[in-house]
Amino acid sequence: MQFLASIGRVFIGFLAAAGRLIIFTGTALSHCVRPPIYPRLIGRQLVDIGYYSLPVVGLTAIFIGMVLTLQLHTGFNRITGGESAIAQVVVLGMTRELGPVIAGLIVAGRIGAAIAAEIGTMRVTDQIDALSTLSTNPFKYLVVPRILAGLVALPALVLTADIIGVFGGFIVATYKFGFNPASYLQNTANFLHADDVISGLIKSSVFGFLIALMGCYHGYHSRGGAQGVGAATTYAVVSASVLILMFDYILSALLFSS
């Protein structure tokens, strides 16, 4: 019976945590569509999430594109005429999958932890309670700007990462393997469709929402001083990363099922 009781406690704890997250998400979404909105706070979060993440996302994207081209050339070398498909596979892989997922995971590690640490510190130092005392809704002031900024900033980062990643593949293909630059670019342009880019941007919007939501949720519910803030940052990054991979499959199945 002790074993069954322990399983029951874990299951009930999971349901309680899921219920808290659902309530938090619903409250945050409701505040996103109701005034007041703080444009200055949203702008600051756009700079933090988008502009300051651009160097690391761009650097990662160009090396992903270069490595992808290198590995594809090695693999397609074993297939007669397979090398001609490298440009198509690189642009398809970057726009549909690698761009959104890599950018999402990088931003989750950088921004998710920062959001959880900032809001968690405000929670354990009673600054969130002080906002309520001053008649300022904590959700409006802390959560909504970060969620809206995540929805907007991550698609912009992913679009930039797609371009840089394809350019990285172009560099390796033309300078290392001797591909004709004009032919490579023509194959890329002919194979790329608007749906491929749009599907990646849809994914990135969802990923941006999840990253901001997990950072805000774990920071908002952090307890226990500095140790609790550290745990909140860890939970924010891990949960956001797992949800990104989970929703990547779900969205891929929905968008490309036909």
**How many domains, as an integer?**
1
Query: What's the helix count?
Result: 9
The helicity comes to over 70%
Which H/E pattern describes the elements?
HHHHHHHHH
Low-confidence spans: pLDDT under 50, at least 5 residues? none
Q: Give the termini distance in whole angstroms.
A: 49 Å
The shape is: elongated
Largest sheet, if any?
none
Beta-strand content: under 5%
Rg, Å, rounded: 22 Å
Oligomeric status? single chain
SSE-based structural type:
mainly alpha
- Say how many strands there are: 0
On the 0 to 100 scale, the average pLDDT is: 87
Task: Describe what this molecule looks like in 3D.
The chain is elongated and about 65 Å long. The chain has helices spanning 2-32, 39-51, 54-76, 86-124, 127-133, 138-176, 181-191, 194-220, 225-255. With 258 residues, it is mainly α. α3 packs parallel to α6 and α4 packs across α7 (181-191). The protein has nine helices and no strands. The protein has one domain.
